[in-house]
Amino acid sequence: MSDWLDKVPEAARAYIENHRLDEVECVISDLPGIARGKAMPATKFSKQNHFYLPNSIFFQTITGDWGEAAGEEGWTEPDMVLKPDYATATAAPWTGDWTLQVIHDAYDQQDNPIAASPRNVLKRVLELYEAKGWKPVVAPEMEFYLVAPNVDPAKPIEAMMGRSGRPAAARQAYSMSAVDEFGPVIDDIYDFAEAQGFEIDGITQEGGAGQLEINLAHGDPVDLADQVFYLKRLIREAALRHKCFATFMAKPIEGEPGSAMHIHQSILDVKTGKNIFSDANGENTDAFHHFIAGLQNHLPSVISLLAPYVNSYRRYVKDHAAPINLDWARDNRTTGIRIPLSRPEARRVENRLAGMDCNPYLGIAASLAAGYLGLIEGEDPAPQATGDAYTDGEDSIPRGLGRALDLLDEATLMHDILGAEFTRVYSIVKRAEYEEFLQVISPWEREHLLINV
Fold first, then answer.
1. Does residue 168 sit in helix, strand or coil?
2. 3-class DSSP assignment, residue 267
3. Where do the H-state alpha helices sit in 214-351?
4. Which residue among 7, 159, 284, 340 is buried most deeply as judged by most CB within 10 Å?
5. What's the confidence (pLDDT) of residue 203?
6. How many CB atoms are located within 10 Å of the residue 307 CB?
7. DSSP bridge partners of 84
8. Which CATH number describes the domain made up of 125-447?
9. Residue-wise pLDDT tens digits, 9-44
10. For residue 2, which phi and psi values (nearest 5 degrees)?
11. What does the alpha-carbon distance between residue 107 and residue 103 come to, in Å, rounded to a whole number?
12. Boundaries of CATH 3.10.20.70 in the chain?
């Protein structure tokens, strides 16, 4: 067993030091970002370098149904070969025994990467950057709600009770007292993250009742997507310890702000290590403007990856610090593309369109793919917005999942970047989910249509 443990990060070794490792969870992200895989005794894991799962895990909808995406070979569910990435080994500190998690990569039986695997999609995009001598750097921001337990889907989601016993006490943006309302949950989040070796830049109270934000230090896109993938599970487990739910829905509570996964992006020149968005004088470069133009021109075609559910589009409402446009501006939160204040060497572009409900691998891949096309095409963006951008551009992004999927299907350039097989599978699975949603009669329909039409 010691051979593979020599390959894992120091935090994982420190976690099991002086303990007997009991179990290893072999996990992989499906399209929604749910961890799929197998748990096995550590002794068994140490004796094998791969295991198998059917490729149909990438055809499964969020409801547990299936999209008819098997392709020409039909529904045969061939096994994929899953290989561990030992650099992702991390603790599962909420379990009752000593357990490590390891993210795996998916290959077919001829050792080709599975095109529908979200982690492989992100790696594919990064290979395109690498071929140009560029290295993307990202920093995600994670917004989420702590809410009261909700076991009846017919009932609205409610904010959890904090220490004061008043749910509204947590509706104070950036308030330290509001953060203290959820102190025990936050303490466990910090403790779990430390055990897992994750560097949390900070936790703040956002504008919603029980809404928090976690900022992560910038770094490699795959590594940061892995962290978000792990952190979602970590935060849910910490919440359950304190009899509340953590939700990453884009718009869980009517009348409250939505939850985003803002993606900060910069690009380094591999040879020099310098940020290509700033020149020697600290001024904006052509590459900086081309990247923004790529987001403006191509993000609409991948909105279905950034906003993957019908609920996602309820977040796109003005006056809640949410984007409704593809305008760009410096330090302006009414634009969908924001340029944060920074030193020239840290100049970056913030994509505010991604919801926290997106798969982190796919959200980051989609954003970088749009920026890559901008760098290749060399176009200039629309003029920088001034003032309140909520008054303009509301029709620049699709307003519903059906239209967003249509745009993805039409975007042949994006198919080349993300992979034609991935976009085919993704569209089929998301349309299957959408059809399921359309079969459900909502409370709004019963309230307003039952006896009025």
1. helix
2. strand
3. 221-240, 286-298, 303-306
4. 159
5. 83
6. 26
7. 104
8. 3.30.590.10
9. 999 999 999 999 999 999 999 999 999 999 999 999
10. -65, -25
11. 13
12. 2-113
Using alpha carbons only, give the angle 324, 327, 315 rounded to the nearest 5 degrees: 15
Q: Three-state SS for 438?
A: helix
The backbone torsions φ and ψ at residue 324, rounded to the nearest 5 degrees and listed phi first, read -130, 10
* Pair 356, 250: CB distance under 8 Å: yes
Q: Which residues pair with 77 in a beta bridge?
A: none
Residue span(s) of the chain under CATH 3.30.590.10 come to: 125-447
With CA atoms as reference, report the closest residue to 367 among 126, 198, 142, 133: 126
- Decide yes or no: CATH 3.40.50.1000 for domain 2-113: no
Asked if residue 257 lies in contact with residue 207, where contact means CB atoms within 8 angstroms, the answer is yes
Backbone angles phi, psi at 82, to 5 degrees: -105, 120
Q: What is the dihedral of CA 95, 226, 84, 116, to 10 degrees?
A: 120
Confirm if 368 and 129 have CB atoms less than 8 A apart: yes
More confident residue, 419 or 201: 419
Terminal alpha carbon distance of the chain: 69
User: Helices in 307-344 by DSSP H: which ranges?
Assistant: none
The β-bridge partners of 103 are: 27
CA 325, CA 322: separation in Å to the nearest integer? 9
Task: Convert the pLDDT of each residue in 391-416 to its tens digit.
Answer: 765 668 899 999 999 999 999 999 99
* Residue 19: both structure tokens together: 């303990």
* 378's tokens: 């060399």
Dist CA 154 CA 2 (whole Å): 50
pLDDT (mean) for 60-71: 90
Contacts of 303 (CB under 8 A, 6+ apart): 353, 397, 398, 404, 407
Q: Where are the alpha helices (DSSP H) in 262-388?
A: 286-298, 303-306, 360-377
Question: Distance (Å, rounded) from C-alpha 230 to C-alpha 233?
Answer: 6
DSSP string for residues in 322-344: ---S--EEET-TTSSEEE----G
For 371, the token pair is 């920026």
* Tens-digit pLDDT profile for residues 106-165: 999 999 999 999 999 999 999 999 999 999 999 999 999 999 899 888 888 888 776 666
Distance between CA 224 and CA 307 in Å, rounded?
Answer: 19
- What is the rounded distance in angstroms from the CA atom of residue 35 to the CA atom of residue 236? 13
pLDDT digits (tens, 9 = 90+) for 168-220: 555 555 555 666 778 888 899 999 999 999 988 878 877 788 889 999 999 99
User: What residues form DSSP beta bridges with 81?
Assistant: 52, 107
pLDDT at res. 176 = 59
